[in-house]
């Protein structure tokens, strides 16, 4: 996203990330930002979402398709798709086609959304977003796995259809459920192959992970079968970085603390760490990513 985003810049970023050895590239989802917003960003301490002022927010399925054709192996994650914004049959088709064309590189990161005013623009009822999301995920799975899927639900109905191509990944691309709440963890246990929370230190994350495992065991599911992808912010900070910003960075931006935090996450059972960045400049991001790979990654289990 951002005022300087361009097709060539996107391709260069994705190709360089792949060359450096990063496993996954993630893209976010907003369709519009209404001029008047009262909803608080749930992961920003009650403040506004910084993306509102970003400009040029590229639609995620378009962006991942563009990236897919310019890369060979890096996995493609919606990080995350706001599920209620798109008709389930169309969205399932886009995911299935992308997985088919890339020979199985898709990860379906999903969320219920948080920006009520954007829901209003899209003609969706914000209060029903959780129930709508659950039904849509059920439809995704039917379309991806059944020969003649049909559906008769509260929000969507259709008779038997032929739905092709099916995804390459079987039974379907992994679904990672985003959110830091107990509700998100319960949805993960019910329908997800992964849980995708953001912005925790290792000390903060330990009880959350214990809660997820308890919920999984109560539902008769093996907690070890749930992938954990933790989102955090990557930046190497110096003494001039304000303390309130340092607290939001992996290891407060300190190299050794980054190593310690990542090893603590690994010991807990975190499988993947997803980085966002304070800068939107491609060159600055790539320099930061190179530095991480040379100074931090070799010391992480």
Query: Low-confidence runs (pLDDT<50, min 5 residues)?
Result: none
Query: What's the number of extended β-strand segments?
Result: 10
Largest sheet: 8 strands, parallel
Overall structural domain count: 2
Rg, nearest Å: 19 Å
Shape assignment:
globular
What is the CATH topology descriptor of the largest domain? TIM Barrel
Helix content: 25-40%
Instruction: State the fourth-level CATH superfamily of the largest domain.
Output: Luciferase-like domain
Q: Supply the number of helical segments.
A: 10
Order of helices and strands: HEHEEHEHHEEEHEHEHHEH
Mean pLDDT: 93
CATH class value of the largest domain: Alpha Beta
| Oligomerization state | single chain
The fraction of residues assigned to DSSP E strands is 5-15%
What is the correct CATH architecture of the largest domain?
Alpha-Beta Barrel
Determine the structural class based on helices, strands and strand pairing: alpha/beta
Could you tell me how far the N terminus lies from the C terminus, measured between alpha carbons in angstroms?
32 Å
Overview of this structure, please?
It is a single chain. The chain has two domains: 173 residues, Alpha-Beta Barrel (TIM Barrel), CATH 3.20.20; 121 residues, TIM Barrel. It is 40% helix and 14% strand. The protein has ten helices and ten strands. It starts with 6 loop residues before the first helix and ends in a 6-residue tail after the last helix. 30% of the residues are buried.
Which features would summarize this protein structure in a list?
301 residues, alpha/beta, TIM Barrel, 2 domains, 8-stranded parallel β-sheet, two-stranded antiparallel ribbon, 10 strands
């Amino acid at each position: 996203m951002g005022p300087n985003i361009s097709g060539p810049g996107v391709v260069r970023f994705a190709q360089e990330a792949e060359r450096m050895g990063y496993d996954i590239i993630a893209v976010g989802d907003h369709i519009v930002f209404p001029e008047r917003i009262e909803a608080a960003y749930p992961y920003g301490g009650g403040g506004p979402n910084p993306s509102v002022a970003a400009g040029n927010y590229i639609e995620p399925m378009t962006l991942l398709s563009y990236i897919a054709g310019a890369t060979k192996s890096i996995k493609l994650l919606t990080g995350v798709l706001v599920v209620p914004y798109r008709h389930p049959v169309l969205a399932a088709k886009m995911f299935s086609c992308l997985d088919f064309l890339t020979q199985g590189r898709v990860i379906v990161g999903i969320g219920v959304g948080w920006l009520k005013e954007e829901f209003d623009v899209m003609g969706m009822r914000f209060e029903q977003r959780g129930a709508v999301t659950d039904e849509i995920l059920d439809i995704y799975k039917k379309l991806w796995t059944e020969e003649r899927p049909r559906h008769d639900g509260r929000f969507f109905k259709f008779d038997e259809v032929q739905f092709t191509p099916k995804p390459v990944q079987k039974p379907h691309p992994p679904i990672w459920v985003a959110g830091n709440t107990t509700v998100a963890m319960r949805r993960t246990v019910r329908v997800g192959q992964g849980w995708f929370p953001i912005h925790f230190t290792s000390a903060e994350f330990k009880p959350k992970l214990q809660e997820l495992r308890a919920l999984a065991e109560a539902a008769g599911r093996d907690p070890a079968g749930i992938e954990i992808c933790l989102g955090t912010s990557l930046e190497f900070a110096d003494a001039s970085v304000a303390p309130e910003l340092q607290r939001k960075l992996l290891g407060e931006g300190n190299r050794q603390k980054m190593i310690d935090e990542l090893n603590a996450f690994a010991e807990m059972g975190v499988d993947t760490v997803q980085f966002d960045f304070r800068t939107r400049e491609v060159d600055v991001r790539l320099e930061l990513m190179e530095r991480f790979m040379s100074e931090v990654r070799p010391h992480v289990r």
